[in-house]
Amino acid sequence: MFSYYLDLALRSLKRNKALTALMVLAIAVGIGASMTTLTVMHLLSGDPMPGRSATLFYPQVDPTDDSRPDSQPRDVMDYRSAMDLWGAHRADRQALIASAELKLRAPGVNLPPQMARVLTTTSDFFPMFAVPLRYGSAWTPADDAQRSRVAVISSDLNNRLFGGANSVGRTLRLKDADVRIVGVLASWRPSPQFYDVAGGRFSDGKTSSFYAKPEDVFMPFTSAQDVAGNDFGVFTCWGDPQAMKHLQTAPCVWVALWVQLNDAAKVAAYRRFVADYAVQQKALGRFVHADNTRMMDLMQWLDFNHVVPSDVRLQVALAFAFLLICLCNTVGLLLAKFLRRSGEIGVRRALGASRGAVFAQCLVEAGMIGLLGGFGGWLLTLLGLWLVRRQPVEYADLAHLDGGMFLATFVLAVLASLLAGLVPALRASRVTPGLQLKTL
């Protein structure tokens, strides 16, 4: 029966090719616009650590003297709190994180000095976040303890400085210190750069920077303090400015801590540990707000920071509004097309066709238009993503159509056309046979 309806639908579409092309074009343009923006939204709002994100947590305490009763913990910690929690070794894995921007050059490489983004962390960072390496290996906990001047560099930096060759054992000069390369990352592009997300709720939706490529250099947090001095990125400070000359003792927050907790019991125990630590620090006179602690998992932390840029959300809304306009036009064109065939439909009804059969035939025809529109929408989506990749935004290189979104393009096109065809098909199925036969 379906093949019969399909044959009738194809004949009807061929009968008025201009009108068919117009409807297919309307669906294709609407689908292309909506799927381009929806694909970007899908890529930016996905889980950057699938299968592991539920075990990664971001503890927070409040070392400030803020007197507001509704204040929340700062997005990062002061040095002492971060070191205390990290040094307690209560998690399965844990990583301190702080960023700096330092002048970099490679002795023996004929390139001018450049400013490099440096992520300072601890050895657990690499296994905890499943960071792939192409050459060498990450540093060890012993390197953390011994303040070894070692580094892992990104594949991009390795390509720029050493032409992609194995650079393990080579030397970098960061600021005024020599650092030995022990590892080179393989291609690694987390989306977003989740481990360094902070302050998103204060960004007014301008969060594209969270989708930048990984840093050029990774080095131990301990030895980085000797190399970078006070050149770390500071989130915020309070209190006497004179006290800010040494970040380790300054009233500033600039160090993040991520922990891996592999079961619910460990999560509950670590929450208690953080709360007890805050109470202890209040008893010592260092904290004012002992009850102001928090610990979110990875996806909760990303949601809290509104990582998806507001302009991307707005583009999705506008694109689907445009799709709705295209569907309204398609409804009008289908209604005109079906009612123009009232005489034909009346004859079919008089010959015994049921209302359901006429309704089904019209919906199959609408579905065929949607399928053709989906193919056009897929091509326009590829064009749209190509244009996104040429925009000067941090997430531009992420724009691609994966298998799931490819299927979603055709599913959305067919569903949209079926929805657009419901009212016209219903009207066509209610054509009165006797009245149409009198007019023939």
Explain this structure.
This protein is α+β, with helices and mostly antiparallel strands. It contains 14 helices and 12 strands. The protein has a 6-stranded mixed beta barrel. β2 and β3 form a beta hairpin. α11 (342-350) crosses α14. The longest helix has 34 residues, at 355-388. The model is unreliable at 435-440 (pLDDT under 50).
Compact summary:
The protein is α+β, with helices and mostly antiparallel strands and 440 residues long. The protein has helices at 2-15, 17-44, 79-87, 125-128, 141-146, 155-162, 221-228, 264-283, 298-304, 310-340, 342-350, 355-388, 403-429, 433-439; strands spanning 56-60, 93-105, 114-121, 133-136, 150-153, 171-174, 177-185, 217-220, 236-237, 252-253, 256-260, 294-297.
Question: What does the secondary structure layout of this molecule look like, with pairings?
Answer:
Elements (H helix, E strand, L loop, with lengths): L1 H14 L1 H28 L11 E5 L18 H9 L5 E13 L8 E8 L3 H4 L4 E4 L4 H6 L3 E4 L1 H8 L8 E4 L2 E9 L31 E4 H8 L7 E2 L14 E2 L2 E5 L3 H20 L10 E4 H7 L5 H31 L1 H9 L4 H34 L14 H27 L3 H7 L1
Helix pairs in contact: 1-12, 2-10, 2-12, 2-13, 10-13, 11-14, 12-13
